[in-house]
């Protein structure tokens, strides 16, 4: 199938015609190509998420590889990295290959499995990282996300081990002794609500330790869902010294604060917790500066019974794939170069996903792209989401931007704002 995107604006530039032929961007029109009137639409390289929970295998009631892939495509994504905290845990070549195969079968985005660092995410014994790296799933990112690799010796060993195949350890930075019983950010609001707090230092202490370990062994560290101003300062200093560290921030940490806990609505319960206005400001600036490299959704679908209960019993986590671009647009406005880098090019580089995040003005670039209508305002209706879960914190909010179409290697996965399959 060939397409002609007529009058499209590539990253906000003057309108042009974009030809998609044989899965790549082409400078020559193709006879009989399907014409899409792209007047007023902006083309971005397909978004890439380095942090997605797809819940399969094990919690198919919350999400499957297929439903999560559909949510991703509708959100403008062409690739997602699937976190390892499934059941069974993705800590063997067999499980990561299963997830990878399910992704291919769904065929809506490239699903790149993340392997666990430790067996069963238990933090005791290193998983078979090499076997996962050399499996068909070609794993490059390893993470115990949901849990922190708290043992410094194990963390050091893992960092050393993945150097051989240019792997990266993605750390959920949480010193577990400092967050025992934590329900939300530790601060004025937690004191008022009488909820046990997760102090900022529990995150910052682990990031400080890990950048020193990464520096010591000369290996790659990636920091998941950075949430505090202090973490930003640690990262700023580490990067200035040349440490091989990258970091992500979620859309919700760029927008929401701990005051959302005031209504005790568990939809706002998440790890790390929503922080303060000052933290939000520091995160916004850090993403602009490049101290934080990417926006990652940490899309964390949960079944109704795990979310619609009392705050302290609710699972942490919120949906992200279908609203991420709109949240980033609402925070930064139409800064398309910044958005394309932080949501596509940089995450593709971190995950080693060549073929994604490419330059759409160049012939031969794989046609992984998304078309956005920035003029549309939409009201988020949880019932309309493609995700199997409903735990969006943005229900009822009016957000800018709508994904009109998404293409994976030149094939439409979304057209007219609807998934093609
Ligand atoms: N972010 C969350 O609050 N929850 C995530 C785990 C995680 O990212 O730590 C989940 O798997 O539900
Ligand atoms: Zn996490
Ligand atoms: Zn996560």
UniProtKB/TrEMBL annotation:
Catalytic residues (positions): 298
Annotated TM spans: none
Essential cofactor(s): Zn(2+)
Binding-site list for substrate: 53-55, 85, 271, 302, 316-317
GO molecular function terms attached to this record: allantoinase activity; dihydroorotase activity; zinc ion binding
EC number from the UniProt entry: 3.5.2.3
Family: Belongs to the metallo-dependent hydrolases superfamily. DHOase family. Class I DHOase subfamily.
Protein name per Swiss-Prot or TrEMBL: Dihydroorotase
Annotated organism of origin: Actinoplanes derwentensis
